[in-house]
Amino acid sequence: MDLSRVLDALILGVVEGATEFIPVSSTGHILLLGHFLGFESTGKTFEVLIQLGAILAILSVYFGRLWSIATALPSDPSARRFVIGILVAFLPAAVIGAIAHDFIKTVLFESPMTICVSLIIGGLALLWIDNMSLTPRYTDATKFPLTTCLAIGFIQCLAMIPGVSRSGSTIAGALLLGADKRAAAEFSFFLAMPTMAGAFAYDLYKNRDNLSSDDLVITAIGFVAAFVMAVIVVRWVLDYVNRHGFALFAWWRLIVGSAGIAGLLVYG
């Protein structure tokens, strides 16, 4: 196995874990970085499958809370409503993602310029939202109305365009629909679990006959790196967002998107 490929997988895994739960687009970052590193994965599966590490990071950080919700399901209507809300929010991505899967992987994933433009547009949108005077109506991520959950689910589908950011779109959507910053970020975390697990399972199924043992080893390296980094980031991001908002992430998007466009124009 090529050592440089192993190092690339490690770097990309760290970047995935560092960016999955902040509104900067993890997929956009690893596709753009992979482009400049010359990293290629079979059917672009690496970029999707290593997200399982980030899913397990959420499970490890929120295990106690998730376990309490799971054990309360038979007797607590609010717990059942929360789970239904997450499933309702997940539904649009499940349907649209399955229909558009091939287009996303073969067209959008192969367009670095689209990623850069999406990063810049998303950064400007975050700056705009961060400076709005919004009055929150919801402060608990487990108590969003089902209509709000469905609307966030449709907004999440924008993230099928690499560079938009799944967490960015869901957080921004929740803010505009009346959530405070902490509740918006938490709901984005919870929604990530079925969304990313579904993407993982579907992509693995679609490419099951094309993956080699080397592909699986490289993916495992990226997965572990993503898990470790995501655990660190998840514990930090909620407090940061609650105190400082999203301006830092917005400016980061603008810088990365602009640098990416410059790099593409110079190096191709």
TrEMBL record:
Membrane topology: Multi-pass membrane protein
EC number: 3.6.1.27
InterPro entries in the cross-refs: UppP
Transmembrane segments: 48-70, 82-100, 112-129, 141-164, 184-204, 216-238, 250-267
Domain of life: Bacteria
Localization per record: Cell membrane
This protein's UniProt keywords: Antibiotic resistance, Cell membrane, Cell shape, Cell wall biogenesis/degradation, Hydrolase, Membrane, Peptidoglycan synthesis, Transmembrane, Transmembrane helix
Catalytic activity: di-trans,octa-cis-undecaprenyl diphosphate + H2O = di-trans,octa-cis-undecaprenyl phosphate + phosphate + H(+)
GO molecular function: undecaprenyl-diphosphatase activity
Family the entry assigns: Belongs to the UppP family.
Function description: Catalyzes the dephosphorylation of undecaprenyl diphosphate (UPP). Confers resistance to bacitracin.
Protein's name in the database: Undecaprenyl-diphosphatase
Taxonomic source organism: Flaviflagellibacter deserti
Organismal lineage: Bacteria, Pseudomonadati, Pseudomonadota, Alphaproteobacteria, Hyphomicrobiales
Record gene name: uppP
